[in-house]
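Entry:
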Amino acid sequence: MVKKILSIIVVLILFSCLISSAVAEKSSNVTASLSEAKKEVTPAGVCDQPYALCDTAYCVPSQDDPSKVICSCSVEKGPSIGAKNCSSWAPIGMYKNEDGQWMIKAGYAVGQITSTYSFHNAAPVDGREIDAANTSSDYTGDVYLKTIQNGTWADCWTKPCSVLPQDITADVNTERKASDNAVCNCGLVVNSSEWYIGVNGVEKCENASVGHDYIISGADPKTTDGGMKMLAKYIKDHPGSDPTQQYMMGYCENCTTSANSTS
């Protein structure tokens, strides 16, 4: 497991360097300070479009800005919650073709998307089971929210992300297959009193050091709890919007044997 995490971090550093050379203009996004991260933010709403999901992302310090970290997040499509209007989340320079493959448009060095939040990898929870009628039979989500006290974490919510083409040597004037992961410029939050991280599986819920051994994408509890209620209502009201998502995220404090179940 440690070797896997270290390899992710090494690739992440190389990936971020490639993006820095590919994108000449730096993002003007302002990193959230500790006081901003602790302040309650009201989610703007739910958008059904491409986004970056950083719920279990590992991060490395930015080489250019000590107040930022670089995180590797998956590229997804469907309902997610954020703090900006949908037009500001719209992807730039990329799309999904008829075969379901992410593509970088001709003329764009990289694609650009925004990191938001969804239940895409949420583990089944007693009382809020996945609706088998609206969920694929191979669903295997196993992510729970774990509360962490103090420490350092990455604030990725509504932060800008870049997506490189799979073949970085391909002609920029042609359409190219995009990577499955995005590299997101997230804010570094230090010594926050309480925060959430996403962990894969019940065994990590019991791990006291997880969340402190590495810089991991996290979230403010007040913002997250409010956003999850809004997203859960949207998915219930639009059952066909995304069959890969269940209706709520589980918490480590309520882990049950349902963690290993599927619909």
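The CA atoms of residues 196 and 219 lie 5 Å apart.
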